[in-house]
UniProtKB/TrEMBL annotation:
<feature type="domain" description="Acyl-CoA thioesterase-like C-terminal">
    <location>
        <begin position="129"/>
        <end position="261"/>
    </location>
</feature>
<protein>
    <submittedName>
        <fullName>Thioesterase family protein</fullName>
    </submittedName>
</protein>
<dbReference type="Pfam" id="PF13622">
    <property type="entry name" value="4HBT_3"/>
</dbReference>
<dbReference type="InterPro" id="IPR049450">
    <property type="entry name" value="ACOT8-like_C"/>
</dbReference>
<feature type="domain" description="Acyl-CoA thioesterase-like N-terminal HotDog">
    <location>
        <begin position="19"/>
        <end position="103"/>
    </location>
</feature>
<dbReference type="InterPro" id="IPR029069">
    <property type="entry name" value="HotDog_dom_sf"/>
</dbReference>
<dbReference type="InterPro" id="IPR049449">
    <property type="entry name" value="TesB_ACOT8-like_N"/>
</dbReference>
<dbReference type="InterPro" id="IPR042171">
    <property type="entry name" value="Acyl-CoA_hotdog"/>
</dbReference>
<dbReference type="Pfam" id="PF20789">
    <property type="entry name" value="4HBT_3C"/>
</dbReference>
Length: 263
């Protein structure tokens, strides 16, 4: 499935059917849910605008074999800020909601550069890719080239819940857009699963992205550097923060998630 064509279709279509290969367990991969909703909203606004942040609430599991509906609306347009909302629906119910804030640049004395260089990791060429299509891997991972650079692996029973690596798409062509970056950001597993001694389900409950820079000049072949840490985990929930750097080492995006853990 070509993501560029899929995102472009949403300019005219309010419904779409996806391929089962984008499944994450029994539901649609959450990163693609976010990418689809953002693409739909971008087609709805009057002109290209600078995304500042978005929040996704995952209400229920999305069946990859069923038709999905996407309804976008603009909530308010101010002098600098536009805010919009998208509902992703299936079988008559809302399965996910996105709220996004776009903000134009303006003069301000408040300026702090992002003082967060990428962590020291082995060169990406020195790290083997996670095999595509392995029987014990979620189906959607076949669409990503992931290199695990440091930190414990999922379900290793570790006392640490942070790790890092590199990632990019596998098998995609054409322009790399903001919906692609949103989709890509969620490809690594939730950090809290490293604490579990054996496989168990985990899923995102809420997801907030803060965009520091547009992915200008990014290419499908580029690797993005990723690091995630868990701030707190208890009672079947985990709270994590991830950071993503572009090929030039520029901090581009901050991702925060509340994760439900069933184990």
């Amino acid at each position: 499935m070509d993501l560029n064509r899929t995102f472009a279709r949403l300019a005219d279509d309010d419904t779409i059917t996806l391929e089962p290969s984008w499944a994450q367990g029994r539901a649609l991969f959450g990163g693609l849910s976010g990418g689809l909703m953002l693409a739909k909203l971008q087609h709805t606004i009057d002109r290209p605008r600078r995304l500042r942040s978005l929040t996704v609430s995952f209400v229920g599991p999305i069946d990859t074999s069923g038709e999905i509906g996407l309804q976008a609306q603009i909530l308010r347009v101010g002098k600098s800020v536009l805010q919009g909302e998208v509902h992703l629906t299936q079988n008559g119910g809302v399965q996910a909601v996105l709220l996004a804030s776009f903000g134009e640049a303006r003069e301000s004395a408040a300026r702090i550069a992002a003082d967060s260089p990428p962590p020291a990791m082995p060169q990406v060429g020195q790290i083997p890719a996670i095999p595509a299509g392995a029987p014990d891997m979620p189906a959607f991972l076949q669409h990503f080239d992931i290199r695990w650079a440091h930190g414990p692996l999922p379900f290793s029973g570790s006392t640490q819940a942070e790790f890092g690596g590199y990632l990019r798409f596998r098998g995609q062509e054409g322009a790399f857009t903001l919906p692609h970056l949103v989709t890509l950001t969620d490809a690594f597993p939730p950090a809290v699963v490293t604490l579990l001694p054996q496989p168990a389900p985990a899923s995102s409950l809420t997801w907030t992205l803060e965009l520091l820079h547009d992915p200008d000049g990014a290419d499908m072949a580029d690797f993005w550097q990723y690091r995630v840490r868990t701030d707190y985990a208890a009672d079947g929930y985990g709270h994590t923060e991830a950071r993503i750097w572009d090929k030039n080492g520029r901090l581009t995006l901050i991702s925060r998630q509340t994760v439900t853990v069933f184990g």
